[in-house]
Each structure stands twice: as structure tokens, then as C-alpha cells.
Amino acid sequence: MTAETRYASSPAEVLSWNTAQTRKALLIEQLFVQDEIKLVYSHYDRFVTGGIYPVSKALQLTPPDQFKAAFFLERRELGIINVGGAGVVTVDGETYEIGFKEALYVGKGKKDLSFGSKDSAAPAKFYLNSTPAHHEYPTRHVTRKDAEVVTLGAMETSNHRTINKLLVSTVLPTCQLQMGMTELKPGSVWNTMPAHTHDRRMEVYFYFEVPQGQSVCHFWGQPQETRHIWMQNEQAVISPPWSIHSGAGTSNYTFIWGMAGENLDYGDMDVCAVPDLK
Q1: What is 2-276's CATH number?
Q2: 196 labeled part of a ligand binding site
Q3: Whole-structure pTM value
Q4: Has 203 been labeled as part of a binding site?
Q5: pLDDT, tens digit (0-9, with 9 covering 90-100), for 162-183
């Protein structure tokens, strides 16, 4: 397992960043390495983004040095979405079979976490988000049938999309973590447009199902000082609380959003009108 640390930054500081500085601070370029666990620990809300790719063996999730904890979920909760083949997650001896685009919530206090694949020829890819937690909530497997599903946008504005709210307060109780998955319809490329900010929550986007040879341009920054980051398949990007988070691809794609902060109101946001963005 490897775990790197990313530090927080202010709107004033990022005005001087070049492309390389921006990518180093916010872009997570590789999450899935065969038979490894990759973690990124952000100082924004102590949010952890990770990838677990068990191919030839099951992998145990242990606490990185940054936690100073006896076990990973000693003071945390965990959200997992499988973006690969059929997988198996074992939580304190109880086994959960997690299919493609299905989620698992694991609450504070669970000690033994193991991740494996049903078939090494089609291995699972577990994308995970973790945040500090103050209360123990039960482990729960959330399938696509359990999700709260909303369809937004239109083909005319290139943002026809389906939002699958998987680990949110309307589906199950969590301390602060929220996760979901947005799928762009063929012919649509814009996500989260009109853009918005939410000072009480930070967010991480994980882009996948980006076709070979295609890319996604992720937009961030204050509404009047936007920047962009070009991203490839299965990469993630950290979005500060003061920043917009939106993207447009050279093809349709899917992305997972994960949020952490002091409230669980999905609709708590400050919308930025499209003509006002700069």
C-alpha cells in the first residue's frame, strides 16, 4: 500500500500556478495498480481517495501512517464503488459480493477489511472514499436498484445525464460521506453544468468509462477565475470547497462524485449561471 498527502490551498495561491503545479496539487493520475492499494490523503476535510485492484490475491486495507490509528476505520467511515469485474469485500468476517457499479458503505469501528476478485481474468476495481466519522453506522450493500436516480439536462445542451445517488442521506445514514455516480448519455459531454460551489463541502471526481483516445477537460477554480485540467480514463481530481467542479469530454463518459463536509443536504449549493463564468 502507498499513501501520499495532498495539501490545501487558497484561491489567492492558485492564481500563480502553472499546469504542472496544478496537476501535482489536484490530479490523481493513477489509482489502480495490479495487486496494490493506492491512497491519497487530502487536507481538505481529511478526505481519502483510493483504488484497490486485487488480481492474484485478496488485499487487506490497513491504516496509512497519516491516520496514526490502530485500524483503518478506527475514526473513519468508508464508501466503495466497484468499477471492474465482480468483487468480494469482507468486513469483520462478513462477506459482500459487489458487482459492477455497485456500492458498499462501511461504518466507523469495523476492523478487518479485505478486498478480492471473483475471477482474476476479470478483476474487480474498488474505488474508495473515506472521511472522518463521529458515529457508528451499519455496513450496507447498495445496488443500482437501491439508488435514488435523477435524470437531468438535455441533448440540446449536451448534458443529458443520469445521476445515481448511492451513498447519500436519502438512501442510508452516514456521518458526512456522500457518493454517487453520474452517467452521460451518448452525444452528451457536459457534467455539472450550470456549475456550482459549496463552501461547506469539498468534493472529488473520478472519471471512468472514457473511451480510448478520448479525454475529459475538468474545470475548477472560483467562478470568476476558472482553470482546467485535462484528464484521462480512471483518474481523479480534488475540488476545493471554494471551487467549481465541472467537466466536458471529447466523448460521453461516467464519473463518481464523493463529498465531505459539515452538512448532508445534497441541494446545498451556490449555482453559477453559465454566462457569469469567466
Answers
A1: 2.60.120.10
A2: yes
A3: 0.96
A4: yes
A5: 999 999 999 999 999 999 999 9
